[in-house]
Amino acid sequence: MSNDANIIFERPTAMSDRITHYCPGCTHGVIHRLVAESLDELGLRERTVGVAPVGCSVLAYNYFNCDFMEAAHGRAPALATGFKRTRPDMIVFTYQGDGDLASIGMGEIVHSANRGEKFTTIFVNNAIYGMTGGQMAPTTMPLQKTTTSPSGRNVELTGYPIRMVELLSTLKTPSFIARVGVFSPMHIVQAKKIIKKAFRLQAENKCFTMVEVLSTCPTNWGITPIASTKWVASDMEPYYPLGVFKDYEEGEG
Amino acid sequence: MSNDANIIFERPTAMSDRITHYCPGCTHGVIHRLVAESLDELGLRERTVGVAPVGCSVLAYNYFNCDFMEAAHGRAPALATGFKRTRPDMIVFTYQGDGDLASIGMGEIVHSANRGEKFTTIFVNNAIYGMTGGQMAPTTMPLQKTTTSPSGRNVELTGYPIRMVELLSTLKTPSFIARVGVFSPMHIVQAKKIIKKAFRLQAENKCFTMVEVLSTCPTNWGITPIASTKWVASDMEPYYPLGVFKDYEEGEG
Amino acid sequence: MDKQIEVVFAGFGGQGVMTAGQLLAYTAMEEGKQVVWIPSYGPEMRGGTANCTVVVSDDRIGSPIINNPMSACVFNRPSLDKFGSLLRKDGLLLINSSLIDVKSGRDDLTETLIPANDIALKLGNPKVANMVMLAAYVAATDIVSFDTLGGMLDKKMGKKKELLDINHRAFEEGRKLIETIKA
Amino acid sequence: MDKQIEVVFAGFGGQGVMTAGQLLAYTAMEEGKQVVWIPSYGPEMRGGTANCTVVVSDDRIGSPIINNPMSACVFNRPSLDKFGSLLRKDGLLLINSSLIDVKSGRDDLTETLIPANDIALKLGNPKVANMVMLAAYVAATDIVSFDTLGGMLDKKMGKKKELLDINHRAFEEGRKLIETIKA
Amino acid sequence: MPGIRIDKEYCKGCELCVHACPMQIISMTKEINLKGYFYARLHEPTKCIGCRICAITCPDVAIKVLTHGTRFALFEY
Amino acid sequence: MPGIRIDKEYCKGCELCVHACPMQIISMTKEINLKGYFYARLHEPTKCIGCRICAITCPDVAIKVLTHGTRFALFEY
Amino acid sequence: MVKKLMKGNEAIGEAAIAAGVRNYFAYPITPQSEVAEYLTWRLPEVGGTFVQAESEVAVGNMLFGAASTGKRVFTTSSSPGISLMQESLSYMAGAHLPVVLVNIMRGGPGLGGILPSQADYFQSVKGGGHGDYQLIVLAPSSVQEAVDLMILAFELADKYLAPVMIIGDGMIGQMMESVEFPEKYRDESNPDEKDWALTGAKDRKPRIVKSLFLNPEELEINSLTLDKKYREMKKSETRHELYKVTGDTKILITAYGTMARICQTVIDELEEEGISVGLFRPITLFPYPEKELFAEVIKDNIEYILDVEMSTGQMIEDVERIVKGARPIDFYGRTGGIVPSPNEIKDKIREMLKK
Amino acid sequence: MVKKLMKGNEAIGEAAIAAGVRNYFAYPITPQSEVAEYLTWRLPEVGGTFVQAESEVAVGNMLFGAASTGKRVFTTSSSPGISLMQESLSYMAGAHLPVVLVNIMRGGPGLGGILPSQADYFQSVKGGGHGDYQLIVLAPSSVQEAVDLMILAFELADKYLAPVMIIGDGMIGQMMESVEFPEKYRDESNPDEKDWALTGAKDRKPRIVKSLFLNPEELEINSLTLDKKYREMKKSETRHELYKVTGDTKILITAYGTMARICQTVIDELEEEGISVGLFRPITLFPYPEKELFAEVIKDNIEYILDVEMSTGQMIEDVERIVKGARPIDFYGRTGGIVPSPNEIKDKIREMLKK
Ligand SMILES: Cc1ncc(C[n+]2csc(CCOP(=O)(O)OP(=O)(O)O)c2C)c(N)n1
Ligand SMILES: Cc1ncc(C[n+]2csc(CCOP(=O)(O)OP(=O)(O)O)c2C)c(N)n1
Ligand code: SF4
Ligand code: SF4
Ligand code: SF4
Ligand code: SF4
Ligand code: SF4
Ligand code: SF4
Ligand SMILES: [Mg+2]
Ligand SMILES: [Mg+2]
Questions:
Q1: Is G176 close to D64, i.e. CB distance below 8 A?
Q2: pLDDT by residue for chain A (253 residues), tens digit each?
């Protein structure tokens, strides 16, 4: 890192300098940075292993300066469990999309959370399958158009969006579970605090930690990046309220 | 059915007259009977298809007088979904153990419930893997001894028991979700009412319905049938409270 | 002794048939024999029946599963029904006559009635019926020596003096019974 | 016309390269040719580039994937970089000179500069740059007749009269451009 | 007069009915059935009130309940 | 005096920074970078208050923020 | 019949509708997602439904349930997704259920890539699940053939009460070609007449669809019943195509699917050079046209076999087995999503001829 | 070395500990659940842990994560459970991860039964997952050999950076036999020296364990690297055993695992009748001892091959491929959990000799 005292914001060390493959305005990039900054600030990078999912962030390993594994679709929490149980001294995080975590990976995330596996999950909810071209996800909003719900998600046939944070918060095993957004600078600042706390709790060997991040997919939503952030605020946030839902430290865990 | 007016209790028509393979005092038998009675009383038997799980009730198809499918371990809800979507005019129920439904089948049950699939799940929670010889289940109680937790379930390493009813009740999609017990005559009577209601709601094409039943496994718990029913009352019920958690008809669904 | 001997112990779960078989296997191994012990873990698992097969041989053992064993010790009626008909011609069948009031109906077997439960009850612990039967089998076949068998019992059962005693007495009874018959 | 012709349309997502290729494929099929249209759906999917290949033949078409195509219409710089070098010797390269200010650097190709975006802009809709390019390609190769092409446009685009008009005019411009060059 | 019929071949001797009967009139026999279980029997038939509790409790549906009067309804089931 | 540096090759022209800057001093160029995007630039450098909001917002970490004074802390980040 | 220019994935969806299918279950995966995207709106038009499952594991098991109704049902997926269906495939084969699955293969192993590949031959032909079972496996080489084989697949599934898998590489799914659909095709199979279908135990004994047979004698009978079907298929259902196999042919290429098309280009081009190469293209990979291949191979003029695959060599094991040492067998393969070009194959053949 | 009488499943667990394993992941399934029941208490004694996973899908992926640490890890399961691991197996093979899996096979397909079977030969040897990969497959015929092969499995996994699978029928897991464990065995593999293990990017570049290669050239390189390993294994790692194969042997039996033991009884008994039968028992099913088998088969005295399996015929395809028509091949198999008795096999042989 540059020692120039004049620099008050720059690329974190835990992030590589590769240009990402993400679409313009896609907030995957912001979330990557928040994770990298947290690792830097907590001094964890050198003993951290990330788990990339199958989804747009499948290449996440290219953008972090730490060791990485590439999981099968939905199974990142199983990889993280296997790794962390074998090397409890390391820091492990999974980075998963909503298709990955809430659809095919439902079993793995629920059970990892319930066993209290001591890793951190960053759950990027953009209400769609980005990578495969915009199909409906379990988190797709009612009436939202996707390639597999071309006239809008019909809740009669496909049910309502799943709120993973609420669902996981019913588990009795202590944990840290929160939902944040990155759709405005203020929300990004708040998101950073919470993501950092999740990693700190892991470093202190406390509990399973998961932060859901409301994210955007301008490409598959078919709107501009700015319109996308606005849609998160107007349509997603009311259904997916932000906040810390389970906090190990406050004994609610 | 016999027309003898003098008989005030007998084997329901929807039950076959085979002697079950269940161990003495195992309440799987009671639960079978409650399902069969419900089908009889609602007149559904002739258009009902049951889905047997992998678990002690793997042979359930031998004990009912209706069509049956035998599912892969944990996947009964997927079979039920496939069947019911193809034949919405039929009645479909799954009968699943706690290993089957809460462990390997977590993804299938959550998503079936969330899509609002219109079938009924009878979830038999006996806090153990009965069939395979008494291993720990996700619903095994803290400190309960099993062959894979020989010194009692250690919640630090394996987490707390999962409460499926509470977990599924967080889903917004309307449904009927309840927990009952069969550990005393009074509880059996109450269980019957709720199971019957679940089938009625399905017959009315209303919603996904699931009834969790606290059951026993005298063999693998290593105690007598009577001691088993007492243990359900003293140890399981406090952790797994009985009641209707989501009721489509009361709009809480 | 034949080059290879196979024996099935069969009964309800809880009658100790698995333990009896294992003890025999340990003893035969101690005497330098090749042994295989194999439980039935088939569909009959539920419903309370249990059985195991012990194969003892001087040479390397081929098939560990024996469709038609040479001998069987049956502790209850369903086991008699099953193994009575499976035994090889000229085989040996020990029947727990405390609980079984019939015989196999075959005339090509040596059948011996062992009132194992009655004897065990007399000794003061119904649980040692398996040891009565095991001793009877050993006495009838000389498959292992009683010395090694007793030694193995001490080794495996260890600690509980009281229990050990009654087991040893069960051995004694089973052995005596056969000797009486033989004599 | 050769027995088999292959052409790649390549550009940013949103430049209409897929549509241009499909329209050509439909037209050739209408004229009784065998056709294959195949999009690139490879790793380059993300990051905004897109391309498709159209193979037109009198006979049954063998390989649908063409490693070294005969011709290409490139709409942006990354596409030029990629396909400029892949084209077969003596191939035809149409370059959207509105957005690309270099050439392939090869001397074994016929290269033609088509200011497709500029023309489209002049016509009043930057979106029809793809049709300008398609027309130029058709004019340069005579792969299909403009009659069938125009007819297919009407059929596929249907309804929106306004849009149709401007697309037809784009055809006209593309065609004229090539004729001027040829002349 | 109400009464019950226990089909001894269905009975597995679990004793749940013995425990459940409010009149405490069911007990276990010392005989075994074909499957090898000591089965249950009604030892004081005259005291039976036909409440169906034993039948409702029995996991093996071994019990039938009869009455010579009208249909009994101590509780809804 | 605070200021920002936008690395134009990282910029994908999403305009999120333009929208986010409280001083409204970032805008899009009419030139494209190597990847073909119209990139962002600071058009009124003197007005920059070094609040870091643009940088925090940028999904492509294209922005570096500098200050000639002490470390700025309008908000904790 | 009208010709339409259609993408393979969409044509596959439309073919299923033509075959009478109204129920489709799938999970998105490149390069087959367009099947679902197409059927999402197309099925409701004909009174059908598409269920987007939560995973491929669920898809396989939904198919089990859906097929038990006696109606025609199917799914599509791609390599990793097919791996996740192995348990359910074994269950469906064991329970004698007629289902159709399409695998638009991509590069593997693992997450691999998304470009065309034929590396799932072993998985589909040898049975990737557990136990003694086989799938009927069909390999189309064009969009039209994909349509035709779809319809055949449903017929074979119904005839043999067995799962049928169609495997095509990514090109089959992604390319547009002209296709015709049978206009008057009617699904002759009537669920109500299927004596195994679960239609409700009204006026009949309950039926059970299962693969569990705890009694080993019964389980063996089930396996032997399956085995009998497979033998019958081997006798009656093999399909293949020959291309330019003449009395002069020195080299016989074995290749399937799109790879075979590319070999046709090779054969045409070599013919012009005066080199006579022929193609044996199996259309049914199971049952493999064994007798037919052997009969060609032992003709006097054949000197070599060249097996060409988009894999490191899988079908070649069957070719070796069938050829029984009668002729030397060489191999050319590319993998990872690279489609061998006609030139590479020609070079390989020229090199063989030098020996 | 002390001999212990031990159940196969427990011996397998103990062998893993002897091989230096401290991390085990599994899901209960008959007939292998005792491995977990044993290791549940045994691993903590040596400072290790057992994680009971939520499913076999999770197990396979936990192994992926655990193996990425560079430490030795393993699982055990049975047929349907192994089917659920196919995706992860393909991933682990593609990512070059050394892991060991044990399949205590039961009757299939589907839920089948729980008695001994060898019907997963295809699945394990031909690759049940997607893509171009293979597993090293070892087949023990006794509890002692299961122990020995467990240790070999870890060594091969480390040597080739590849998943190794041990397949045994239910008897291997359930029977007790006397076993010895290597007393001084030391795991020579040091995670810190493995240049691919994820140990934290301290003073070095980040490492990535993956099977994704979106660029087809890179993916092809990965497949060719795998292919090279498999070729190397075929050259150096085949293992087999001959039993009573002499200059008089007319019939050569091919059989593996417990089935081969039963054939030994057959051979002994026929020897007494003056009939000379020999046994070729492959111990490595992949790489198959091809050259070795072919060399035996073409000896003048050999008239027939008899392949014996507890399946409807799977390994026989490899035998056919290898024998290349040099000798007629006959088959005897039982399935569904039925273990063929020596008498049945003798009858089969007598019948063959009549021809
Ligand atoms: C087993 C399997 N099924 C399906 C796929 C295809 N697939 C790739 S990414 C993806 C969904 C990604 O959506 P999400 O997790 O929401 O991530 P995003 O792209 O939106 O960030 C799917 C279904 C796969 N690779 N493997
Ligand atoms: C894929 C797969 N994994 C594991 C098994 C083995 N298995 C059979 S039953 C069972 C657990 C049964 O427990 P539960 O669902 O609680 O039912 P119970 O026997 O207690 O009624 C397991 C793990 C299997 N058959 N298939
Ligand atoms: S497709 Fe959507 S989620 Fe994926 S990179 Fe583009 S905008 Fe982001
Ligand atoms: S093992 Fe337990 S759950 Fe299974 S039948 Fe016996 S008592 Fe019931
Ligand atoms: S009906 Fe009631 S009173 Fe009569 S035996 Fe049964 S429980 Fe007892
Ligand atoms: S409850 Fe039923 S099975 Fe149990 S003892 Fe009474 S009659 Fe017998
Ligand atoms: S630092 Fe603040 S004021 Fe300066 S450009 Fe960025 S957002 Fe605008
Ligand atoms: S936010 Fe970043 S990528 Fe977007 S326009 Fe601004 S500098 Fe460019
Ligand atoms: Mg998403
Ligand atoms: Mg249970």
A1: no
A2: 344 558 999 999 999 999 999 999 999 999 999 999 999 999 999 999 999 999 999 999 999 999 999 999 999 999 999 999 999 999 999 999 999 999 999 999 999 999 999 999 999 999 999 999 999 999 999 999 999 999 999 999 999 999 999 999 999 999 999 999 999 999 999 999 999 999 999 999 999 999 999 999 999 999 999 999 999 999 999 999 999 999 998 875 4
**Beta-bridge partners for C62:** none
Fold of the A28-250 domain? Rossmann fold (3.40.50)
Give CA–CA dist F11/F32, Å, rounded: 10
Q: Are C127 and C16 in contact (CB under 8 A)?
A: yes
The amino acid at residue D161 is: K
E52 within 8 A of E77, measured Cβ to Cβ:
yes
Helices of type H across chain D: 17-30, 77-86, 116-123, 129-141, 146-157, 161-182
pLDDT above 70 for G2: yes
Domain ranges of chain G: 2-186+207-236, 240-353
* Token pair recorded at residue C40: 């039935």
Report which secondary-structure segment, H or E, holds A125. Answer: strand A120-125
**Nearby residues of G203 by Cβ (< 8 Å), 6 or more positions away:** none
Which amino acid is present at D58? D
DSSP G54: S
Say which CATH architecture domain G2-186+207-236 belongs to.
Answer: 3-Layer(aba) Sandwich (3.40)
Contact: G312, H226; criterion CB under 8 Å: yes
Half-sphere exposure of H280 (CA within 13 A, CB side): 27
Asked if omega into H109 is within 30° of 0 (cis), the reply is yes
Q: Which residues of D106-135 are buried (b: 16+ CB within 10 A; e: fewer)?
A: eeebebbbbbbbbbbeebebebbbbbbbbb
Q: Does residue H40 contact residue B145 with C-beta atoms inside 8 Å?
A: no
Q: Give me the amino acid identity at C77.
A: R
Best probe of the A interface among B98, B166, B173, by most A CBs < 10 A, is B173
Total domain count, chain C: 1
Strand ranges of the sheet holding H251-254, from the earlier edge strand across to the other edge: H240-243, H277-282, H251-254, H304-309, H329-333
Q: What span, in angstroms and rounded, lies between the C-alpha atoms of A138 and A142?
A: 10
* Residue A253 Cβ < 6 Å to ligand 1: no
- G98, G162 contact by CB (below 8 A): yes
| G240-353: CATH, from 1.10.3470.10, 3.40.50.920, 1.10.8.420, 3.90.650.10 | 3.40.50.920
The span from the CA of A121 to the CA of A77, in Å, is 8
User: Is G touching B (3+ C-beta pairs, cut-off 8 A)?
Assistant: yes
Q: How many CA atoms lie less than 13 Å away from D169 in the CB half-sphere?
A: 16
| Residue B97 in contact with ligand 2 by CB distance below 6 A | yes
| CATH assignment at residue D20 | 3.40.920.10
Give residue D86's domain range. Answer: 4-182
Asked whether G285 and G260 are in contact (CB, 8 A), the reply is no
Count Cα atoms within 13 angstroms, Cβ side, for D112: 25
Q: What is the pLDDT of residue H342?
A: 93
Which of B6, B25, B184 faces E14 most closely, judged by CB atoms?
B25
- C116-123 vs C161-182: helix crossing angle, rounded to 10: 140
CA nearest neighbour of D52 among D1, D103, D9, D95:
D9
- The H helix count followed by the E strand count for chain C is 6, 6
Read out DSSP for A227-238?
HHHHHIIIIIHH
Q: For chain A, which residues make up each domain, given as ranges?
A: 28-250
Ligand 1 neighbour A59 (Cβ under 6 A): no
CA dist., res. A210 & res. A105, Å (int): 14
Asked if the Cβ–Cβ distance from A61 to H210 is below 8 Å, we say yes
Contact (Cβ atoms closer than 8 angstroms) between residue H258 and residue C58: no
Tokens of D16: 């209409």
